[in-house]
UniProtKB/TrEMBL annotation:
Residues 417-428 have a biased composition (Basic residues). One of its GO terms (cellular component) is plasma membrane. It comes from the Bacteria. It is a multi-pass membrane protein. It comes from Cohnella lubricantis. Keywords: Membrane, Transmembrane, Transmembrane helix. This is MFS transporter.
Length: 428
């Protein structure tokens, strides 16, 4: 069923608002890729402490979850562009503080984590609601594929440029340069966000919907929420550790930039191909293939973590992640748009999605903190990475029913459109 707040279905095409949202997303991702890839290294070099980075990440996830829930009311009241701009501006404030504090930032890691988590929560809440409003089941995979391509291009160029700059300048001045560049890109992102349209929402913000959805038995949302929680477990640990492991093995920001250049180039190909050719009817098998390969490749860590094994891991994961990630994202937003009631409460359902993801991220980072508190032995950390890294398989198990249902709906929709064309009746 169509979202009552959106026009007729796009039949796979992207309009001006779709493309503008891709630009806003691209600027935000580029600014974060420019500096975010190296922020963990920056803190590591100042502290040599896994736990400090983990606490920064954990606090960020907690603040992000709270921001989603609290800021949902402002988005529901039609202030999506304001919330989106505040999220981008908050990220600029984060890097401004990093510039101001320098290496003393490790003494204020709680403040930096809170600001980054709040800014990310504001941006992704508004972005995901706008994304739902400007896409539909026909063009959602295509949009996600192009968003992934944009992220891959940013991941190729920005970290490599950052690594090159840091390696050619004194360490502190190199980091300051890339943080300043990120500030400028965030400002451009705020300006681009002002061009987006605000669509009206209906009703009052339902503060208790996340808890009610979870408490209702035999609902289609129960397994989806479980899949999202499990997805979040992997995101938090791998998002923090992979770049740091590459740097620890090489001791070179330039080689970390080269690593992201290679893996992002592969991700570009993966996102382009999946976004262009993966159909809703094939999501279930595409997601399974991606999940299996992403899990198996972690076994490489048990043979020793070297730059070569990290490259193999990065290439395999970057190539297969789109098969896992695009169906996961598209299926959840298709479920939100599956009825008039859920479409009207799209803000609350986006909050539900993000709360589930952040619950998983918090759990994953808590597990990491507990593990490194008792042991930092390579074997122990490898076992943790394998357990956490197998999350995509369990997400797929919980998503199977939803993916099968949406595949049937997609086939039925195509059959209906074909019949209408044969009768020469207008579609949509």
């Amino acid at each position: 069923m169509l979202n009552p707040q959106t026009p007729a279905r796009s039949h796979g095409r992207l309009d001006k608002q779709n493309r503008l949202l891709l630009v806003v997303n691209g600027l935000f991702i580029t600014a974060n890729a420019l500096s975010g890839t190296f922020f963990g290294v920056y803190i590591w070099k100042a502290s040599q402490n896994f736990s400090l980075l983990a606490w920064f990440t954990l606090l960020g996830h907690i603040c992000m979850a709270l921001t989603f829930w609290l800021a949902g009311r402002a988005v529901k009241m039609g202030r999506k562009k304001l919330v989106l701009g505040l999220g981008i501006g908050g990220s600029a404030v984060f890097y401004a503080l990093v510039l101001l504090l320098g290496t003393r930032g490790i003494d204020y890691i709680w403040l930096l984590g809170a600001i980054q988590g709040t800014a990310s929560g504001l941006f992704w809440l508004a972005y995901n609601v706008i994304y739902f409003e400007v896409t539909d089941p026909d063009n959602r995979d295509r949009f996600n594929g192009l968003a992934g391509v944009t992220g891959a291009v940013a991941g190729m160029a920005a970290p490599w440029f950052s690594g090159f700059m840091i390696s050619r300048m004194t360490a502190e001045s190199g980091y300051r340069t890339i943080f300043i560049l990120s500030l400028g890109i965030f400002v451009a992102g705020v300006l681009a966000a002002l061009l987006l349209r605000n669509r009206q929402t209906e009703g009052k913000y339902d503060w208790r919907l996340p808890w009610r959805i979870w408490s209702v038995p035999r609902t289609s949302w129960r397994p989806v929420l479980a899949a999202l929680i499990i997805q979040g477990v992997r995101e938090s640990v791998f998002g923090m550790m992979i770049g740091l492991l590459v740097y620890i093995q090489t001791g070179s920001e330039l080689r970390l930039g080269n690593y992201t250049l290679i893996t992002s180039a592969v991700a570009f190909v993966g996102f382009y191909a999946v976004g262009r050719w993966l159909k809703p009817a094939w999501r279930i098998w595409g997601m399974l293939a991606g999940a299996v390969v992403m899990t198996l490749v972690i076994v490489l860590f048990f043979f020793g973590i070297t730059y070569s094994t990290m490259i193999v891991f990065g290439v395999a994961t970057s190539l297969m992640y789109p098969l896992y990630g695009i169906p996961m994202t598209s299926a959840v937003f298709d479920l939100i748009g599956g009825s008039e009631e859920s479409a009207r409460q799209r803000v609350e359902y986006v909050v539900v999605r993000e709360l589930a993801l952040n619950a998983g991220r918090i759990a994953g980072m808590a597990a990491f903190l507990v593990t490194v508190h008792y042991s930092r032995a390579p074997l122990v950390l490898n076992i943790l990475m394998l357990i956490v890294g197998s999350a995509p398989l369990f997400s797929w198990l919980f998503m199977r029913g939803t993916l099968r249902m949406q595949a049937r709906q997609s086939r039925q929709s195509r059959q209906e459109r074909r019949a209408r064309r044969m009768r020469k009746e207008p579609v949509g």
